[in-house]
UniProtKB/TrEMBL annotation:
Keyword Transport found: yes
Molecular-function annotations in GO: ATP binding; ATP hydrolysis activity
Claim: Transmembrane is one of the keywords in the record: no
Keywords on record: ATP-binding, Nucleotide-binding, Transport
PROSITE patterns for the chain: ABC_TRANSPORTER_2
Gene3D superfamilies attached to this UniProt entry: P-loop containing nucleotide triphosphate hydrolases
Species: Metabacillus sediminilitoris
CDD domains, alphabetized: ABC_DR_subfamily_A
Domain of life: Bacteria
InterPro entries for this protein: AAA+_ATPase, ABC_transporter-like_ATP-bd, ABC_Transporter_VariousFunc, P-loop_NTPase
Protein name (record): ABC transporter ATP-binding protein
Length: 298
């Protein structure tokens, strides 16, 4: 079953198209990583899916309903980001307790154990938490709520490395016992690569790619060798990224549609064929130029 369906969804703020005709579906009980650069439209897209803001054009369905101001959708999803605010009169313990009355699948025992593990003070107010501690507290809410649709918008903002690791591990462990549909946005694929099943990559508000992490690993291939030989070899191919190495060498990345015979041909010319890390590939696919920052200096 599709939990999220977006068909040519756009969101315009004044003259800015934050989301531009995005189309994709997210199936039930999958963890999807929404990856994109700063300003790519991740938050806008997630807020549309959560039902906080209305799309300008296109069609969005969440649990087969239009999400904006929809009770069924809001009862079945949780959206967490670092902007979340709670009343100052509530302590952290109060917030956890009231969450239990709000979310049908709430696991108070798990929330309490995570709360203790991360050494929170039950009497503290949410407002006075540090940035990283706010994110950690949000994580507890997001995991213990066990909502059928769980949306984390850049959940690890401010977290230190060990808390980040703990977060991903806790989320994965709980997901394996209680599968649900989870969307996590991030700038960095490598951090969440082991956790997610699918990658939804957006660039300038448009869907650039939507596929499994497994397929993403095979999506591109790189050639490393003498500039003349490599450029000759990739002449009729779309170059996703290229970088000059030294005086007469180049590294060029193209989509991986190569036949074995072509690979052999490249090798026979002394060109090295190397795989491309998924994280690097996402950077190349969302870059404004095929040379990246080097183009500024060339
Ligand atoms: N309320 C708003 N009014 C005007 N422009 C907005 C508004 N919200 C977002 N934008 C613009 O829409 C674009 C997409 O913003 P969005 O916050 O969705 O990106 P993002 O991918 O989440 O970015 P980041 O990774 O930096 O948080 C940006 O150019 C941003 O300036």
């Amino acid at each position: 079953m599709n939990v999220v369906m977006c068909n040519r969804v756009s969101k315009v703020y004044g003259k800015k198209k934050a989301v531009n005709e995005c189309s994709f579906t997210i199936k039930e009980n999958k963890i999807t990583g929404l990856i994109g650069r700063n300003g790519a439209g991740k938050t806008t897209l997630l807020k549309i899916i959560a039902g906080f803001i209305h799309e300008t054009a296109g069609e969005v369905h969440v649990f087969s309903e239009k999400p904006f101001n929809n009770l069924k959708v809001s009862a079945n999803r949780i959206y967490l980001d670092d902007q979340i605010n709670f009343s100052n009169s509530l302590t952290l313990k109060d917030i956890l307790q009231s969450a239990g009355t709000f979310y049908q699948n709430w696991d108070q025992g798990l929330a309490d154990r995570l709360f203790q593990y991360f050494s929170f003070d039950p009497k503290q107010s949410h407002q006075n938490l540090s940035k990283g501690m706010k994110s950690t507290f949000n994580m507890i809410l997001g995991i213990a709520a066990r909502c059928p649709l769980t949306i984390f918008d850049e959940p690890t903002t401010g977290m230190d490395a060990s808390v980040r690791k703990d977060f991903y591990r806790a989320l994965l462990k709980d997901y394996l016992d209680h599968p649900r549909t989870i969307i996590l946005s991030s700038h960095l694929l490598n951090e969440i690569e082991d956790l997610i099943e699918d990658v939804l990559l957006i660039k300038d508000g448009e869907t650039r790619l939507h596929m499994s992490v497994e397929n993403l690993k095979e999506y591109a291939i790189a050639f490393n060798g003498k500039t003349e030989d490599v450029l000759d070899f990739v002449r009729n191919k779309d170059i996703l990224f290229q970088k000059r190495i030294g005086i007469d060498h180049i590294y060029a990345v193209v989509e991986n549609h190569l036949k074995d015979s072509e690979k052999e041909n490249a090798r026979s010319k002394g060109i090295e064929i190397v795989s491309v890390a998924s994280d690097d590939l996402c950077t190349y696919l969302t870059s404004k130029t095929i040379g990246g920052i080097d183009d500024v200096f060339n």
